[in-house]
Amino acid sequence: MFAELLQYLLSGLTIGAIYALAGLGFSIVYNASHVINFAQGEFIMIGGMASATLTASGVPLPLAILIGCGGAMLVGVLVAKFAVERARNASTVTLIIITIGASIFLRGVAELVWGKDFKRLDAFSGETPIQFLGASMQPQSLWVVGTAALLIVAIALFFNRTLTGKAMLATSHNRLAAQLVGIDVKRVVLASFALSAALGAIGGAVVAPITFSYTEMGIMLGLKGFTAAVLGGLGHGPGAVAGGLIVGVAEALGAGYISSAYKDAVAFVIILAVLLFLPNGLFGKRGTERV
Amino acid sequence: MRNRLLSTMAGVVGLALGGLAGTVSAAEPIKIGAIVSATGPASFLGDPEKKVLELYADRINQAGGVDGRPVQLTVYDDGGAADKAASFTKRLIESDKVDVIVGGTTTAATMAAAPLVERGEVPFISLAGAVVIVEPVRKWVFKTPHTDRMAAEKVMDDMKARGLTKLALVSEDSGFGKSGREQTLAVAKERGIELVADETYGAKDTDVTAQLTKIRNNAAAQAVLVFGLGQGPAVVTKNYRQLGIALPLYQSHGVASKEFIRLAGGAAEGVRLPAAGLVVAAQLPAEDPQKKVVTEFTKVYEEAFSSEVSTFAGHAYDGLMIALDAVKRAGGTDKAKLRDAIEQTKGYVGTGGTVTMSAKDHMGLTLDAFHMVEVKQGDWALVK
Predict the structure, then answer these.
(1) Mostly located where (chain A) (predicted)?
(2) DSSP labels for A112-164?
(3) pTM of the shown model
């Protein structure tokens, strides 16, 4: 009984850590530009595909991840520069549609570059399951949770300890005021896209051994990440992380105790409930600018 | 939009015609239409199908065609969408005026096209799996692949031979998986197998440990059957080993491609599944009637595309060959005669097995067409 619950929790935390990274990406971009970037899932896909295909052709894993990360950052900046920035006076809905367009475009390009089949990436440290109080987990799960935790701490330090981070935070609080004190808001937007792309790409690389990588892997992960971000309160970093873990665990428990047929429904029921009853999310501040 | 679509279509047809230009003779061509899912989620099925149809149409034309008539192939890509499959079927019947249609990569596409070919009275050979395509029998609809019902039967026969009677089912939340689940439930009743668990997973799920934990804690289960396509079954297999479940694991014919072994890696060892002879071509005994056909097809395919042959490519080959064989026997392309000739296909040895159709059976395969294989050292091995 306890082992069963523990197994569900472990599965939930692993997948939840990925949702948390995706959710954090949504929050960073939202903070800097008030855009909900639906291409976030595609950054995850780029990271996963690049590391799987590069290691298959003999590139060492760390280098492959770095290249994937760099590629995703470049793509993120290009999306921000040529799609989002050009339409910066458009309404939020238009901007969201632009990012959806960008995500479809990126999937198409990825299909041309990498093909349609599934790519396999070997687990970073073997596949012998770790037994833990009657539950078992893949060693890769530790990599996922560990990497996510490390990135989350790094992001927190970046925002609170560095000047660039503080500038980005300032922009999110008050764009006009930030501009008046000399912050280059345009560059902040670009940086936010690059940062969220890097987060996504690293996340994609560490989950690839569990999920396999393919050009459409980003769709569902992106949507779940969005759920996580909304649940935690859009733009609230720690909230997005908590949201991701909650969604992951709720899914695993739902599949285990209710029915596996409703696994995906769990996440979307959560998002509907949040939007109806807690439009600012669990941790979001009571917004004054949102209607 | 409409213009672009039209010009793309014109391009596709143009290409198809261009490929034939060298050999077109005065004789009227045999017009074969095809709808496959060459792109989209089912592309791993549809892409090899399209390639095979084009390759063999070319080869046949270079060899002088059928009864001196060249084959004219028109291929449309439905992108995995059933509504597109329906509109392309209409186009094939009404504007391309084809003599026979091969295709419908997925069951959904096939079922969308079926009423149209029934109304248009054009023979239609589907490449999709589900048993609903030919049961009940539709006058103009045939199919080449084995059904999910046969897969369930083969698996349960193998279970019985091993003395196992209690099965846990894990099926995918897709057309293929749902139909497979229904057939498994029905066959289990017939064969006296007790179904002790009935779990599902999403086609894009990345973790199935929750469902499998339930099965692990189910003391009654003696074997597990997974019904799915693509990467899902590989995820299930990996999670299965992760949880250290020791029960025999069966998969459906939906994963009978090397891709599955590659994705699941070491976890695939010991997995059993029913597969067509094509998958184990090299291991078939020399006296097997399929040996020659599958060895030849594998050679041609792998030389032409330098990639591994898949059973799905084989389905398209069988569809085309059955159609052309029927044209020969019907002495032309009169649609009613052609349909009768397809229905009278007898003893045709293809990649899927030996096909003998009848008015009651529009697939014509028996359980012998399936071989039980087991993954051993990263390759398929025939289970004796």
Answers:
(1) membrane
(2) HHH-SS-B----TT--PPEEETTEEE-HHHHHHHHHHHHHHHHHHHHHHHSHH
(3) 0.79
Q: Could you say which of A120, A220, A252 has the minimum Cβ distance to residue B210?
A: A252
Interface predicted TM-score (ipTM) of this complex, two decimals:
0.76
Strand partners, B30: B71
Of B204, B210, B242, the CB nearest to A136: B242
Give the type of residue at A103. S
- Residue A148, classified by CB atoms within 10 Å of its CB into exposed (0-12), middle (13-18) or buried (19+), is buried
Compute the distance between CA of residue A10 and CA of residue B116 in angstroms, rounded to an integer. 50
Residues of chain B with a CB closer than 8 angstroms to some CB in chain A: 39, 41, 43-44, 47, 173, 199-202, 204-211, 213-214, 217, 230-231, 234-235, 238, 241-244, 259, 262-263, 265-267
Q: How far apart are CA B314 and CA B51, in angstroms?
A: 11
Tens digit of pLDDT at every position of chain B (384 positions): 455 555 555 555 555 544 444 444 457 899 999 999 988 777 878 889 999 999 999 999 999 989 889 999 999 999 888 899 999 999 999 999 999 999 889 888 999 999 999 999 999 999 988 888 998 899 999 999 999 899 999 999 999 999 999 999 999 987 788 889 999 999 999 999 999 999 998 877 888 888 898 899 888 999 999 999 878 899 999 999 988 899 999 999 988 888 889 888 889 999 999 998 888 888 888 888 899 999 999 999 999 998 888 888 999 999 999 999 999 999 888 999 999 999 999 999 999 899 999 999 999 999 888 999 999 998 999 987
User: Does any domain span residue A247?
Assistant: no
CA-based end-to-end distance of chain A: 46
Angstrom distance (rounded) from CA A249 to CA A9: 6
Distance from CA of B266 to the nearest CA of A (A): 9
Give dist(CA A127, CA A121) in Å, integer.
12
Angle at alpha carbon of residue B136, lines to B130 and B142, rounded to 5°: 60
Whether A211 maps to a domain, the answer reads yes
- State the pairing for strand pair B141-143/B100-103: unpaired
Measure CA A208 to chain center.
14
Tokens 């934990």 belong to B213
Two structure tokens written together for A195: 């940062």
Buried b (16+ CB within 10 A) or exposed e, B25-38: eeeebbbbbbbbbb
Residue appearing with tokens 């999709």? B128
Domains of chain B (ranges plus CATH)? 2-146+293-365 (3.40.50.2300), 148-282+369-382 (3.40.50.2300)
- The total number of structural domains that make up chain A: 1
Query: Which structural domain, as residue segments, surrounds residue A38?
Result: 15-119+134-222
Asked, for residue A239, whether it belongs to a domain, the answer is no
